[in-house]
Design a protein that fits this description.
The protein is of the alpha/beta class. It folds into two domains: about 230 residues, Type I PLP-dependent aspartate aminotransferase-like (Major domain) (Aspartate Aminotransferase, domain 2, 3-Layer(aba) Sandwich), CATH 3.40.640.10; about 100 residues, Alpha-Beta Complex (Aspartate Aminotransferase, domain 1), CATH 3.90.1150.10. Helices cover about 40% and strands about 15% of the residues. It has 14 helices and 13 strands. The strands form three sheets. Strands 2-8-7-6-5-3-4 form a seven-stranded mixed sheet, with helices on both faces. Strands 9-10-13-12 form a four-stranded antiparallel sheet. It is globular. The relative contact order is 0.17. The structure holds pyridoxal-5'-phosphate. Pyridoxal-5'-phosphate (PLP) binds next to helix 3.
C-alpha cells in the first residue's frame, strides 16, 4: 500500500503533531503524585476553569475518570442509572461492578439520550429491599448514539430529577468539546448540573494520552484516593500533560473541520445505494451507517476488510453497522478519497 492509510476507525488514532511533540519535549516536570508537576498543575487549573469546577485531576484515561467518579459517587450495592449504550456499561470491562461495586439500570434512550419520563419510570421507591439509586450518568456527546448532542435543557431536566431523588450526577465528557464547538454552549454550562465531569485529550483533541476529571474540592480530594488505589498516580506526567495543554490551546476550534468532514462523508454515503444513513443525524464527528442487505452483499466485517485493502479503515459496530470517525489527521480531500473507496468496494461486491 503506497498511499498512507486514511484512518477513520476512531478519533483515538491521531498522532501528536510536530508542534505538540516539541511542547511535550520542553515541558517542565515534577512528581505528579506529590502535586509537584507544574505542567500537570497548570492543566488541572485550566480544566477546572473550563468546566466551571473547583478542582480537577489528571488521569491516564477517560475510562479511569469514569471509574474514579463511580467509586467516589456510589457505594458498593448502589445503583447507577445511565443509557444502555453508555461507555461505562459497554466498554469498561465491567469496572462499574468490579471497581465501584455498582449495579446498573439501563435506559433505552434515543441515540444515547434518555428523557425525564424514562428516568422517572426507572426511579424506585425508597425501601430496604431496593438498591439505593445513587448515581446518574450521561455522555456528551453520545458515542454509540452517533455523536448526538444532549440539549442543555434536557441535561438540566434529567439532572434536576436525579438530584430530587437524592442522586449524584456524572458527565462522561469524552467528546464534550465537540458538543461545545458544534452548539456554542460553553463546557461550563454543560458541566454545571453535574457533581463530576471530565474531558478526554486523546480523542479528537489529538493528544497521545490523558483525560482530566473535575468536581468540587472535596470530590477531587476523594478522587485522588481512588486514583491512587487504581494505580493511576503518575510521576513526571508533565510530559503528557503538555500534549493535553497544547491540544486545549490549539486543537479545540478546529474540531469544526471534523464536524464538516463528517457531514460531507455522510452526504456522500447517503448517495450510495447499499448504504443506509440519515445525514441529518450527523451533529459532530461520528458517522454510523448500515449496509443495506438488499443492495450490499457484504456484511460489515467484509466491507471494512475490502475498504482497508483500498487504504481506508473504518470500524465494525454490528453485523451490518459501520462507524467512521473524523479527526485531526483526516483532511477534507481524504473524505473524497474515502468515498471513492467505498463506492469501489460496493461496486465490486455487486
Ligand atoms: C473513549 C470513550 C471513553 C474512554 O476514554 P479513554 O480515554 O479511551 O479511556 C469514555 N466514554 C466515551 C463516551 C468514550 O467515547
Amino acid at each position: 500500500m503506497s498511499r498512507p492509510l486514511i484512518d477513520l476507525q476512531s478519533d483515538v488514532k491521531t498522532r501528536p503533531t510536530p508542534a505538540m511533540r516539541r511542547a511535550m519535549a520542553e515541558a517542565e516536570v515534577g512528581d505528579e503524585a506529590a502535586g509537584e508537576d507544574p505542567t500537570v498543575n497548570r492543566l488541572c487549573e485550566r480544566v477546572a476553569a473550563l468546566l466551571g469546577k473547583e478542582a480537577a485531576l489528571f488521569a491516564p484515561s477517560g475510562t479511569q475518570c469514569n471509574q474514579i467518579a463511580l467509586c467516589v459517587l456510589g457505594r458498593p450495592g448502589d445503583e447507577l442509572i445511565c443509557d444502555r449504550s453508555a461507555h461505562i456499561l459497554c466498554f469498561e470491562a465491567g469496572g462499574l461492578a468490579a471497581n465501584a461495586g455498582l449495579n446498573a439500570t439501563a435506559l433505552e434512550g434515543e441515540r444515547g439520550r434518555y428523557s425525564v419520563a424514562q428516568l422517572e419510570a426507572a426511579l424506585r421507591s425508597p425501601s430496604r429491599h431496593a438498591p439505593r439509586q445513587s448515581v446518574l450518568a450521561l455522555e456528551q456527546t453520545s458515542n454509540l448514539g452517533g455523536g448526538a448532542i444532549w440539549p442543555l435543557e434536557q441535561i438540566e431536566a434529567v439532572c434536576a430529577v436525579a438530584r430530587g431523588h437524592g442522586m449524584k450526577t456524572h458527565m462522561d465528557g469524552a467528546r464534550l468539546l465537540n458538543a461545545t464547538v458544534a452548539t456554542g454552549v460553553s463546557a461550563a454550562d454543560y458541566a454545571r448540573p453535574f457533581d463530576s465531569a471530565w474531558i478526554d485529550f486523546s480523542k479528537g483533541l489529538g493528544a497521545p494520552v490523558g483525560a482530566a476529571l473535575a468536581g468540587s474540592k472535596a470530590f477531587i480530594d476523594e478522587a485522588w484516593r481512588v486514583k491512587q488505589r487504581l494505580g493511576g498516580t503518575m510521576r513526571q506526567a508533565g510530559i503528557i500533560a503538555a500534549g493535553a495543554l497544547f491540544a486545549l490551546e490549539h486543537h479545540v476550534a478546529r474540531l469544526k473541520h471534523d464536524h464538516d468532514n463528517a457531514k460531507a462523508l455522510a452526504r456522500g454515503l447517503d448517495r450510495m445505494p447499499g448504504v443506509a444513513i440519515d445525514p441529518t443525524w450527523i451533529e459532530t464527528n461520528l458517522v454510523y451507517f448500515a449496509l443495506d442487505p438488499e443492495h450490499c452483499a457484504l456484511d460489515a466485517e467484509r466491507f471494512c476488510a475490502a475498504l482497508l485493502e483500498r487504504g481506508v479503515r473504518m470500524g465494525v459496530y454490528g453485523p451490518r453497522l459501520v462507524r467512521a470517525v473524523t479527526h485531526i489527521d483526516v483532511h477534507a480531500n481524504d473524505i473524497d478519497t474515502a468515498l471513492a473507496a467505498v463506492e469501489a468496494v460496493l461496486a465490486e461486491a455487486n
